[in-house]
Amino acid sequence: MKHTLLTLTALLLAPLPDLSAADSPNTKATAPGKPAASVAKTVFAADEQKWTSLFDGKSLDGWAAEGGTAKYEVKDGMIVGSTVEGSINTFLCTKQDYANFEFEADVLCDKELNSGFQIRSHVYAKDEPQPSKKERIRKAGEIFGYQCEIAPAASGNSGNFWDEGRWTKWHDDWTNKPAAKQAFREGEWNHYRIVAQGDHIRSWVNGVPCADFHDSLDKSGFIGLQVHGVAKGKGPYSVRWKNIRLRATE
User: Fold this and answer.
1) Domains of the chain (ranges plus CATH)?
2) What pLDDT score was predicted for residue 34?
3) Whole-number pLDDT of residue 250
């Protein structure tokens, strides 16, 4: 009898198996002998391999300046763009075109300066009237395309898309987007994320959802880093970029 009581007590005190993980439809079995943490690390490494760095931290290989005469150089692992008096908008552009992708970069811009990330953009091959204003002639070598805005915080436009050098309009209506208007932090590094998939283009600034619109004008084109033109007697001002990377999507 004493032996029976001890056996029952042992059974009652034994820990029950955890069935929650096994019953969960979202739980994947871990290979025998391979810890879950190891599997997660492998998946993360595979995901990271899909990203391509567009800047090696040492040179401007793979990039070319277009438009104006602003200066671009590499300093302390960053691309630094600086204004030149009287220059029109200048862009440091990738030599490769991209269609569907996810793009990320960090930017620090002088508060007196306007900048932007061009995506799916192009160069005018010859002098042409600007579509939004026919009397304005865009010179050969000028840039046009979608520009994700980098601007003084007071403008409330950083993260929206301006149609640079072509239709000169905002692509998204931010009337009811107060969080997007306040996402940019002046005088600090700001993290931008852009996703272009078919005609659907979206942006995030410091993790805050910003632009979200559909437009079919450009299906592919280069990535560009803008130094906005400044009038004579102004500047010099600078904008800095780092951690510039992209991964192509279907």
Assistant:
1) 55-248 (2.60.120.560)
2) 57
3) 83
How many CB atoms are closer than 10 A to CB 145? 23
**Looking at residues 87-97, what average pLDDT do you find?**
97
Residues in the chain: 250
Residue 25 — pLDDT band, cuts 50, 70, 90? very low
The structure tokens listed for 162 are: 């301006």
**How many CA atoms, within 13 angstroms, populate the side-chain half-sphere of residue 170?**
14
Say how far apart CA 218 and CA 107 lie, in whole Å: 25
Average pLDDT across the chain, whole number: 87
Residue pair 205/191 in contact by the 8 Å Cβ criterion:
yes
Radius of gyration of the CA atoms of the chain, in A = 26
Percent of the chain with pLDDT over 90: 78
The strand pairing partners of 202, in sequence order, are 195, 212
d(CA 1, CA 180): 74
Q: For residue 8, is pLDDT > 50? A: no
Torsion, Cα of 86, 89, 92, 95 (10° steps): -120
The angle formed by the CA atoms of residues 244, 171 and 154, to the nearest 5 degrees, is 70
